[in-house]
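Hi V.,

You were right to ask for the full record rather than a summary. Here it is.
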Amino acid sequence: MDFGVIVRARRIMLDGFVRSLISALRFVLIRKKEVDPMDKPSLFTHAPDIVPERLTRGLSIPALVDLMGRTCFEARNVRRAAALFQRMIDQGDTIWLGIAGAGIAGGMGGMVISLIEAGFVNVICSTGAQVYHDLHFAFSLPVKSIHPNWDDDQLRRHGDTRIYDIGIREKETLEAQDAIVRRFVKERHDRLSRGPLASWEFNYQLGLWVAETAPHPELSFTAAAARCGVPIFWDSLANHSIAMNLARTDHEGLPVQLSPQRDIIHSAAIAFGAEQTGFVELGGGGPKNFIQQTGPTISQILGIDFEGADRGIQIGTAVEREGSLSSCTFGEAVTWGKYQQADEANLVQVWGEYSIIFPLLAAYVTDLCQPRSPAGLCDRMQTLVQKLERPDDAPPGPVSRPFRRPVRPVPRQGGGGPLRLRGRRFLRTGHCRGTGRRDCGLPLPGAVRRSSG
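Predicted structure:
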């Protein structure tokens, strides 16, 4: 065979191999370029830049909170909560304030008074204990700022008690306060004995009495709420010192009857009659649950189409995974019908102790928001309850919302007959039996029936 032919054949084979190798390498390089994440554009491209900012002398609270919102972690949530609180106020929400814990005993009632007087809080749910401790300041009973590290056995021997770093005397504070509560019941028993009372009705009378008799009513948020027509509900009618004193006055011939049913109906009526509702919850527990149950009361129990609250802020330290109501996320609450939707812009939870966070939020809106006229819910309660009892009778107006309607319209019976909502029968007019009071909107005994059709 010709040697030149062999050489040419090998050269052709080599050239083909090299070209194939180059093609394979080119394919690998192109493929690698396509999958290399380092060569893809960042998903953070449109996010704001973080820029270290200096503090300046005379920095206002709103400016500080806004600066915090440009940093990280819970500071951003504080800014989100402050901005949401401002929107609630500026856009006319009916704003509930939930007060758990012991912040009022620690002197935070002054901040609550400021919000009430500015019209930034329209209705309150507090533990009964915080209403009780609120009165210490109005009646000049000793409450001290102490160090939390004490020999508690020694404190007990000296007649001292404490709430962490709040010092209270057993005799000069607690026993004196008990006597004041019982004096109120005695002096206002004619107003407290007219029939079953909602907790807000008791607290309204208490606030008016404090304003008339206490040496320093300006230090009491209970007195401020009564003056401004802001109802104060208790989350529980039994687990606090006011109720303990009512047990004694009952025994002494001055009975006072409180009605949890009236609390439920009246609180639901406020939520139903509001054009928009915003919740601000200091801590969790009972006040949080009481406030948030207004939506399920209307939709689940009364059978009226209702979508829950519009917006909410919670400040607390409970851990979500431990399953308590305090730790319940707003998203979880949406599944119960307590809020309309899981919207991060309108539902903000701040992890933190509220004695730190709440003053920042209160100062923020005090600086930036114009005062609002009082909603006067105490004076309007009966009208609100009537609208809840007869939702399809309510005329169009500022308290009507387009999605609110009876689930199944039912013709009324004549002559003051009942309105049926999914088989439940409600009094239309009249008085609670044997009390002389207007009906509170509770189902009549034995009135639950199956709906027809």
